[in-house]
Amino acid sequence: MPFSCLSHLECSRCRATYDAGQVQGTCTCGAPLLARYDLAKVGASLDPKALDTTQRGLDLWRYHELLPVQDPEAVVSLGEGMTPLLPLRAMGERLGVERLLMKDEGLVPTGTFKARGATAGVSRARELGVTGVAMPTNGNAGAAWALYSARAGLPCLIAMPTGAPQVAAAECVAAGAELYLVDGLIGDAGHLVAAALEGRPGYQDVATLKEPYRLEGKKTMGIEIAEQLGWSLPDVIVYPTGGGVGIIGIHKALLELAELGWVTGPLPRLVAVQAAGCAPIVRAFQQGARASEPWPEPSTVAFGINVAKALGDFLVLDALYSTGGTAVAVSDEDLLADQRELARAEGCFVCPEGAACFSAVRQLRKQGWLSAHDQVVVLNTGTGLKYPGTVKVEAPVLAPDQAIPSPGPRQAP
Predict the structure, then answer these.
(1) Mind listing the pLDDT tens digit for each residue in 67-118?
(2) CB 101 within 8 A of CB 234
(3) Maximum separation of any 2 CA atoms in the chain, in Å
């Protein structure tokens, strides 16, 4: 059995095929390329029950047949993957969803799910002989790629908006990346990176969906959810959506698992969550469109989903339509309130993008789109520690000789 059963690359729009053994970007039609595998070979040689943790380990490379790296020696890993799937009984009771679960990506290296894409993308780039990587970012992807590139010994060029989380910029600096802050949005950073690459032969543009392999790392969230549920599927998966790689990847994983016969029955209804200040996917979904229009003047505290126009928007919308899912926009005020409520109810300090998903669950339950008995998996895509400014610290300041007051009657949170 080969380490990877990667077969070829296929255009997500026109279905043209490309050689996976060469460095590739997007299709000539401009659409993202998708990695395709010899699933018959995987299915004939591997039983999901054989994914014994004592032999396969607990990182996402346990699924190496369904990942793009051919040589195990090329893998660049920091131990990412197999994040917990936590039951949230207290929060579920508050939201009216009794079988609420959270896949907590805040526990992976670099503190966000972006580590999954970085391990796959950097590993494959190094294996194919790329001499450097470059990308625009809203923060966390750049931080992850900078750190994994450092581990791989690859130069890394990062451009991010000045409004990106400072923690992410600090990670890039610590990793030795070539970092530029841009007085604008991620699209502006993307134009600057593209222009810079014209003078850097051997570098690869690894912006969102401009190379095929970041998506493959992200799809392992979907495989893990299925495995953690005993190779069954939840009713609903709720995901914060900016560039859309995570929800596209999860959908791709579910389709592959179904073709393998590892899961049966209907796929989960997928929910794309956006901020009210930047909701191009939500607007397109409500209009029944197959692609989105750029969102004017995007703004949200959930900076990771502040994407005015995603290259893979049509793939996100296809995933929603084909699974009977939906798209929801939530206000910054609501998501910040639910970030606090979740921390108090469950002891989980999630990122604002993850918190937005709980606000979406609240909306969908009130609307009746979700039932009390649905099994709902919410993806928290990062730790709240990367966004310290989302919680204002208000506490009494005491002199050393002052006493801490006695508690009054206990108040419900």
Answers:
(1) 999 999 999 999 999 999 999 999 999 999 999 999 999 999 999 999 999 9
(2) yes
(3) 74
The per-residue b/e assignment along 282-295, b for 16 or more CB within 10 angstroms, e otherwise, is bebbeeeeeebeeb
Residue 304 lies in a domain: yes
Task: Identify whether the C-beta of residue 163 lies closer than 8 Å to the C-beta of residue 302.
Answer: no
Rounded distance, CA 48 to CA 196, Å?
45
**Coil vs helix vs strand at 278:** strand
Alpha helices in 14-165 (DSSP H): 39-45, 53-56, 89-95, 114-127, 140-152
pLDDT in tens, 347-388: 999 999 999 999 999 999 999 999 999 999 999 999 999 999
Tell me how far apart the alpha carbons of residues 53 and 152 are, in angstroms, rounded to a whole number. Answer: 26
- Please report which residue ranges of 208-348 form alpha helices under DSSP H: 214-228, 245-260, 280-286, 313-323, 332-346
Domain count of the chain? 1
Residue span of the structural domain in which 284 resides: 85-111+214-390
pTM over 0.85: yes
Q: Give the CATH number of the domain where residue 381 resides.
A: 3.40.50.1100
The verdict on residue 141 lying in a domain is no
- Asked if 322 and 266 touch (Cβ cutoff 8 Å), the reply is no
Identify whether the C-beta of residue 342 lies closer than 8 Å to the C-beta of residue 350: yes
Joined together, the tokens standing for residue 192 give: 């600057």
Who's near 158: CB < 8 A, 6+ residues apart?
134, 135, 136, 137, 142, 145, 146, 172, 177, 178, 179, 180
Q: How many Å apart are CA 76 and CA 164, to the nearest integer?
A: 26
Does some domain include residue 318?
yes
- 64 found inside a domain: no
Q: How far apart are CA 164 and CA 161, in angstroms?
A: 5
